[in-house]
Specification:
The complex is a heterodimer of chains A (about 150) and B (about 210).
Chain A (H helix, E strand, L loop, with lengths): L10 E10 L3 H21 L3 E6 L3 E9 H13 L3 E11 L8 E6 L3 H13 L4 H18 L2
Chain B lengths: L5 E5 L3 H13 L3 E5 L2 H7 L7 E5 L4 H14 L5 E6 L3 H10 L3 E5 L3 H32 L4 H11 L4 H8 L3 H15 L4 H11 L10
Parallel strand pairs in B: 1-2, 1-3, 3-4, 4-5
Helix pairs in contact in B: 2-3, 3-4, 5-9, 6-8, 6-9, 7-8
Classes of the chains: A alpha+beta (about 150), B alpha/beta (about 210).
Bound molecules: flavin mononucleotide.
Chain lengths: ~150, ~210
């Protein structure tokens, strides 16, 4: 996909979707484990973004220093808990969207699952919709904090 | 499969409400329709457990309020919000308010079924949970306010000595309260006490925390 000249030195972003390789009974555990590891690791690498899990698919947007995103990306690509990893967006970013990294949503919602399927059917045209979806979850979670 | 699956339909649009109810009955569900969310909220505490299909035609805020008020009374009822052309923001707000899903109006029956199948699948566990909450509340009524203060500190992780200092009472008195609490609640270990406190809505307190 688009490879901006900023990629090596500046801010980079990566949006991908994948399929969970684990039976549903184990999936929730795996998500808990991924979240527990990713919060400190991403923070230490100055990577922000959000993860979403529909019960069968993962969608994640990561942004941060290009070297950091590359490092995490290599880990994620090698992780056997998911497969069929499809990249929808990869390259330089002008500015950050997220102020930290979090789990945006993990649940059965068909509304959410449909938005993710749209990404596969309409491809690149829907990347902003999916990032918006992640962002809305994060914004509303922040607003609801006591 | 459940013998009796009840769907509560809330929609101010009378003709849509009737058609939707009919379509759901064709799917083998029992239905009860309400013309306003206020009517459902008012009746909520008397209704058998079921799924709520809540059509929000007006401003989104009122819909979110309804979801919250409904779940405050009936945390056992899965709520599916329905809306004409829901925006991402509206759907996410509904999910964050506790709805299990957000479906568009109109919605193909196959999709409604999918959402309902999931909702009815989790219903028994939700009903059991609601029942535990009810039992915990009933047990809590047996505790004196002093015993509740002691319990809060026990589940907050304080020792008898710390509790005694914190409440300015004797360690022996704390031990006595602890014994009485265990006996009244018919529990013999800390894990059970913590579980009870969570269900009864008694937050643990700890002098170190804060
Ligand atoms: C869907 C998915 C998303 C993940 N997201 C992250 C992430 O954002 N940050 C991270 O450090 N690890 C993430 N991981 C976990 C990594 O793949 C890897 O397990 C982690 O970096 C720890 O590796 P280690 O235990 O071998 O050191 C993710 C894994 C999966 C399956």
């Amino acid at each position: 996909m688009t490879q901006s000249p900023l990629y090596r030195f500046g801010l980079a972003g990566w949006l991908y979707a994948s399929r969970c390789a684990l039976p549903s009974a184990w999936a929730q555990r795996a998500v808990d484990d991924i979240v527990a590891k990713s919060i400190p690791r991403n923070a230490s690498l100055e990577v922000t973004g959000a993860l979403l899990f529909t019960g069968s698919r993962f969608v994640q947007f990561l942004e941060g220093p290009a070297e950091s995103v590359v490092a995490i990306r290599q880990n994620i690509l090698a992780d056997r808990r998911h497969h069929d990893i499809v990249t929808f967006l990869s390259g330089g970013r002008v500015e950050r969207i997220f102020s930290n990294w979090s789990l945006a949503y993990a649940g059965p919602s068909l509304f959410v699952a449909d938005k993710i399927e749209n990404l596969f059917h309409n491809g690149v045209h829907n990347t902003s919709e999916v990032i918006d979806l992640l962002e809305q979850f994060v914004i509303i979670a922040e607003a609801n904090k006591p | 499969m459940f013998k009796k699956r009840v769907a509560y339909i809330v929609d101010s649009d009378a003709s849509y409400r009737r058609r939707f109810a009919l379509a759901l009955r064709h799917q083998g569900l029992e239905t009860r329709a309400f013309s306003s969310d206020a009517d459902l909220v008012e009746a909520a505490s008397y209704l058998p457990a079921g799924c709520v299909l809540l059509a929000i035609r007006g401003p989104e805020r009122s819909g979110l309020d309804t979801i919250r008020r409904l779940l405050a009374q009936r945390s056992d009822m899965p709520v599916i919000m329905m809306r004409v052309d829901p925006t991402i923001r509206e759907a996410v707000q509904a999910l964050r308010a506790g709805a299990v899903d957000c479906l568009p109006i109109p919605c193909p029956m196959a999709k409604v079924r999918l959402a309902l199948d999931y909702a009815y699948e989790i219903l028994p566990a939700k009903v059991a949970h609601q029942q535990f909450i009810g039992e915990a509340a009933a047990l809590r009524a047996h505790l004196t306010s002093r015993e509740e203060e002691v319990l809060k500190r026990i589940v907050g992780g304080m020792t008898n000595r710390q509790i005694a200092l914190d409440l300015a009472i004797g360690v022996r008195t704390v031990e006595m309260h602890r014994g009485n609490i265990m006996q009244k609640l018919r529990m013999d270990n800390l894990v059970a006490l913590i579980r009870f406190a969570t269900l009864a809505g008694i937050a643990g307190s700890n002098e170190d925390a804060a």
